[in-house]
Write a sequence for this structure.
């Protein structure tokens, strides 16, 4: 029993930022440092109920940053509980992080497709620095959302893009005509539809030099997998209701 307890650490929420009524960020300080690779996930728990969350932080950051969407009960089990937690609240965090959804370094073309909170592992990969340091890498980051206030990291990703000509960022809004999106002047449509035009404009693209990453809503991931997993290398991370 004692050995089992060593696998689970206490963590304290030291900061929270709400983006919308059902999207928020939290920063957790674990009682001891946790080792992970950019793109992996950690397992967070409250009162014995646990679920995995992709980590936004880079591996060298002290705090574990998460981007969370509220899934109301009864479909959602842990997120309604997490939604009620603020600065000073305690959670558990498993010491061992997991996940194969990491930067695949042997490819030169990295096409990263996400919906809302699915952008988290891509932000971690950017912060990690490997993409920035390799001048041979070409990276396209696509993020889809129904509403523009759901883009939790668009300004940060745009800064990476502005500072590196090999990084292209395309946020796209699937409901541009709604009043909530009245100030939007970017791309319109679902992110899996935008992906097609991006791929068509990449010179010399082939299976040997290209990998597509898809993270977020299961329907989006399934559609990208159906259309591109046989044409290019493909890796996925699906976010299910929890």
């Amino acid at each position: 029993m004692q050995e089992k307890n060593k696998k689970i650490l206490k963590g304290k929420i030291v900061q929270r930022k709400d983006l919308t009524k059902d999207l928020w960020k939290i920063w957790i300080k674990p009682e001891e440092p946790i080792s992970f690779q950019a793109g992996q996930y950690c397992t967070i728990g409250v009162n014995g109920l646990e679920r995995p969350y992709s980590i936004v932080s880079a591996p060298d950051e002290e705090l574990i940053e998460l981007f969370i969407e509220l899934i109301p009960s009864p479909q959602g089990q842990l997120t309604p509980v997490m939604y009620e937690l603020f600065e000073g609240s305690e959670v558990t965090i498993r010491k061992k992080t997991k996940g194969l959804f990491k930067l695949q370094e042997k490819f030169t073309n990295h096409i990263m497709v996400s919906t809302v909170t699915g952008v988290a592992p891509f932000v971690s990969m950017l912060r990690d620095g490997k993409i920035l340091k390799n001048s041979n890498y070409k990276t396209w980051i696509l993020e889809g959302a129904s509403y523009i206030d759901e883009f939790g990291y668009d300004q940060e990703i745009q800064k990476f893009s502005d500072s590196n000509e090999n990084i292209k960022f395309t946020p796209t809004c699937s409901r541009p005509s709604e009043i909530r999106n009245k100030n939007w002047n970017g791309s319109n449509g679902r992110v899996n539809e935008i992906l097609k035009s991006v791929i068509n404009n990449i010179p010399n693209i082939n299976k040997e030099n290209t990998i597509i990453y898809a993270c977020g809503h299961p329907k989006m991931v399934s559609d990208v997998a159906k259309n591109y997993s046989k044409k290019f290398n493909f890796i996925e991370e699906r976010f299910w209701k929890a």
Q: What stands out?
A: The mean pLDDT is 95. The helical segments are 2-5, 79-83, 120-128, 130-133, 154-163, 191-200, 218-228. The CA atoms of residues 116 and 151 lie 6 Å apart. The radius of gyration is 18 Å.
